[in-house]
Amino acid sequence: MQMYDLINKKKNHGELNKEEIEFIVNGYTKGEIPDYQMSAFLMAVCLNKMTHEETAHLTVAMANSGDMLDLTAIHGVKVDKHSTGGVGDKTSLVLSPMVACLGVPVAKMSGRGLGHTGGTIDKLESIPGFSTSLSPEQFIDNVNRIKMAIVGQTANLAPADKKIYALRDVTATVDNISLIASSIMSKKLASGADVIVLDVKTGSGAFMKKYEDSLALAKEMVQIGTLAGKPTYAVITDMNQPLGRAVGNSIEVIEAIETLSGKGPEDLLEVSVTLASYMLLGAGRVKSPEEGRELLLETIRSGKALDKFAEFVSAQGGDSSFIYNPELFKKASIIYEVKAPEDGYVTDIRTDEIGMASVVLGGGRVTKDSTIDLSVGIVIHKKLGDKVSKNEPIVTLYANDDEKRKEAKKRILNAYVFGKEKPERPPYIYSVVTKDGVLDLR
């Protein structure tokens, strides 16, 4: 079997069998297949797509490429949540302590930034001392003691996905349903959680721009999880504008802290609570999402969710004083307001451009070896449907380099579209996909 032949087969719309996909995954993981051949294969997949069978084979091969984490030592039903990636998406930081407060163990493995989207691991590392590298024993002990832990993907857990994930990021091969589904679900299957909740983004800042594509991805992943014997839910949420108002690393952590303190933006709270309610439902903690919602909101009102977040940070080596005093976070040296060029309403936001503006500032990766500036970012003042006056600030940029600030400003102005008619605001949540079908919430 030769990689050249398999690239050619996929290029010509052929369907690969289980053995051929295992050959590609195992060969690349071991270093026997070079980056340039794997890049060609990934591009062929993006152009010609994969069948359901190919996607299932790819997912299993990637899950089996390394260790399958054994979490049986964790007490209770372990839940995990994963997002397909968005701009300003810090829901994991909000919902995990809420769920943990209610006694349901959150055993979560998260990723770093990919393309124009941020990563939970990068955000958490803006907290001084915080470690996302725990031994399996530490991970299990933390979840048993405080009911939550969030770590980076280990070298031996789905190593094929880790290599492919980094390559996709720099070869424009991110936005493919099969590659996204197999990447997410291979990690979920290998990481040992009992219940999987998926946040599937849709809109201009998502990898899936159209609702129909997001729905197809959600169904694909729920099917994979169900076949693997794990209760799996997919919540399709809006990404036609950034979630919340903060886009960056440390400033997103600050916004998560504000939300856990009861002072966060409405959209971030609503999406976080909805996802968390299905985590509770899957774990058998509640009988309905509505019941879960009330319990979750009470964790914020009582202050228990914020205390749990601080406890979690401390347990992973971080300075928990930052959670109660977010003004301690390192600040960028340049603070600059981008102003509206005209009067009107915000009729459209090219959210991926907002994400790329954050990358330009240094808040994301240009190459897989890029170093991130954790203090830079963007605060959004005007969102879809908001009325603006000429020269009114629409966003504030936080930068440490004036040339990067100038480039980010161009991207912001390119991202915003203004008009005379007030547009209809998109819903925060579109639908929920379960093994039984689709619940439309629009």
Automatic annotation (TrEMBL):
It holds the Pfam family Glycos_trans_3N. Its EC number is 2.4.2.2. It catalyses: 2'-deoxyuridine + phosphate = 2-deoxy-alpha-D-ribose 1-phosphate + uracil; uridine + phosphate = alpha-D-ribose 1-phosphate + uracil; thymidine + phosphate = 2-deoxy-alpha-D-ribose 1-phosphate + thymine. Residues 345-419 form the Pyrimidine nucleoside phosphorylase C-terminal domain. PROSITE patterns: THYMID_PHOSPHORYLASE. Keywords: Glycosyltransferase, Transferase. Gene3D superfamilies: Nucleoside phosphorylase/phosphoribosyltransferase catalytic domain, Pyrimidine nucleoside phosphorylase-like, C-terminal domain, Transferase, Pyrimidine Nucleoside Phosphorylase, Chain C. The keyword Nucleus does not apply. Catalyzes phosphorolysis of the pyrimidine nucleosides uridine, thymidine and 2'-deoxyuridine with the formation of the corresponding pyrimidine base and ribose-1-phosphate. PANTHER family: THYMIDINE PHOSPHORYLASE. Homodimer. Belongs to the thymidine/pyrimidine-nucleoside phosphorylase family. This is Pyrimidine-nucleoside phosphorylase. The lineage of its organism: Bacteria, Bacillati, Bacillota, Clostridia, Lachnospirales.
